[in-house]
Amino acid sequence: MGNSPTELRRTDGSENPKRRAPQDNEKIRRLKARSSHGLYVMALFIAMSVAAIRDFDFFPSFPPKIHDLLGQPPSAEMISTALLIYSFSAIILVLSRMMSGSEKSGGFIQVAYLAGFYFFYHFVGTMEENFWAVFAAGMTILGLESYQVWTWCREEIRIQEEIVAGHERNKHKDDKPN
Amino acid sequence: MLRTLSSRAIVPVAVAVTGFVVVCCILLYSVMKTDMVNYTIRHETNLTDTVIKSARYAMLKSDREMLCNIIANVGDQKGVEHLRIFNKKGLIMFSRDPGETGRLVDKKSAGCISCHAGPVPISTIGSMERARRFTNERGVRVLAITAPIYNEPACFNAACHFHTSEEKLLGTLDIGLSAAPLLKSLAIIRSRMVIFSIMVLILTVGGVAALLRRQVFIPIRELTEFTSDINNGNLNSELTGISGELSDLADEVRAMALKLRNYEQEIQELKSARIR
C-alpha cells in the first residue's frame, strides 16, 4: 500500500521482493479479517431473531394512522410463498457462486431481506407459526454464504502465503554474496 | 476444519438441502395447522348451530327443564369441556356445570372482548372471530365458540311478549371443546415431517458421499498409491479401474511410469555393458 509501481519493480522489470512483502502481508491480514465477516452477519441475524421470537414486543406499536397509511398487509400464504421462492433462489445463487469460486456475497442485504419477512409476519400476526421458517431459511442461506466466503478467503490466503514464501526465497537469494 | 475433499463437497450440499427441506416443512406445517384449526372451528360452529336449533322450541315455550336437559346431554358428550347459555347482561342462565348457573361472565374475558371492546357491543361477528383458544382451570387446551342467539319474529310475536322486537340479541351460547385431538394430529404430522427431513438428509448425504467415493475418491487413492509405488522404486506397479475425467490423468501418469521404466532398463543395460 502506498508504493508506486516503479518502487515495486526492479530495473530489469522483475518484482522487488522487499517492497512486495508488506503489501502481501497486508492483503493476508485483510483476507483473514474478511473470512470472519460471515460470523458478524450471522450474529446480527440471530440478534434480530431474538427480537422477532418476542414478536418485537419491546418496540412501541405503530399508531393506527401509520397502519392505515401502510394499508392491508399481504396474506400469510403470500408471504410464505415469497419466503419459499427467496430461499430457493438464494441457495441456488450461493451454490453457483461456490461453484464458480466467486468472492461475492449478499452479506447484510440478506439480513435485510430476512428482516422484511419477520416484519411482514409481525404485521399479519402469524409470527408464532412462521418464525422458525424464517429462522431456518436465514441460518441456511447465511451459513452457506459464510462458508463460501470463508473457503474463498482460505484459498486466497494460501495463494498469498505461497507468493510471500516465494518472495522470501528470492530475497535470501539476492542477499547471498556472489 | 473441513480440510478433506469429501467434507468440503458434502457439507454445503447437506446444509443447502436440509435447510431448504426444513423451511418447506415448517411452512407446510404452518399452512396445515391453520387449515386444521379453521376446519375445527367450522365444525364447532355447526355444532353450536345444532345446539341452538335443538333448544329453539324449548326456548320458545320457555321450557327451562327441557333446556337444562338438552344442555346437560350435549355437555356430557366426550370432549365437551363447557357448555353454557348466558343472557345479554352476561348472567349464566343454563350450564352443563350447575354450579356456574347464576354467575356473571366477565365481558373483558377472551371470547367476550371481541364484541365488547368498544362502548357499543358488536351485534354480528364472523365465525372465525367467534373462536378462542385457551387453557382451562383443569389444564386442558380448549377451542371455544360463542354463538349469538338472535331475536326472531317467533320470539317477539309469541303470546308471552317477554321480548320486544327492538331487542336484537337475546343471549349467547358458549361451547368449549377439548383441543387434544387436534393437538395430537398436529403432533403426528410434526413427527412425520421430522422423520421425512432426516430421511432426505440421510439420502442426500449418503447419495453424494457414495457417488463421490466411487467416482472420485477411490480413483484418487489408486493414483496416489500408484505414484507412491513409482516414487519408492516399484516400477512394475499397475494402475487400473479409473474412468471419467480422471482416466486422462491416469494415462499421463502411466506414460510417465513407462518412460521411467524404459530409462531404468536402459541404465541397467548400459551398466551391464560397461561391466562386460
- As a percent range, the share of strand residues of chain B is 5-15%
Helix content of chain A: over 70%
Rg from alpha-carbon coordinates of chain A: 24 Å
Based on DSSP secondary structure assignment, what is the total number of beta strands of chain A? 0
Q: What's the number of helices of chain B? A: 6
Quaternary: heterodimer
The largest pleated sheet of chain A is described as: none
User: Average pLDDT across residues of chain A?
Assistant: 83
Describe the structure in your own words.
The complex is a heterodimer of chains A (178) and B (276). Chain A has a domain at 25-57 and 73-161. Chain A has 6 helices and no strands. Chain A has helices at 17-35, 37-53, 64-70, 76-100, 108-124, 127-175. In chain A, helix 2 runs antiparallel to helix 6 and helix 5 (108-124) runs antiparallel to helix 6. With 276 residues, chain B is of the alpha+beta class. Chain B folds into 2 domains: 7-178, PAS domain (Beta-Lactamase), CATH 3.30.450; 186-275, no CATH class. Chain B has helices spanning 5-60, 64-75, 113-116, 153-156, 180-231, 246-275, and strands spanning 80-87, 92-95, 131-135, 141-150, 169-178. Chain B has a 5-stranded antiparallel sheet. In chain B, helix 1 (5-60) packs antiparallel against helix 2 (64-75). Classes of the chains: A mainly alpha (178), B alpha+beta (276). Chain A binds chain B through residues 76-77, 80, 83-84, 87-88, 91, 94-95, 98, 126, 129-130, 132-133, 136-137, 139-141, 143-144, 147-148, 151, and chain B through 2, 8, 11-12, 15-16, 18-20, 22-24, 26-27, 30-31, 33-34.
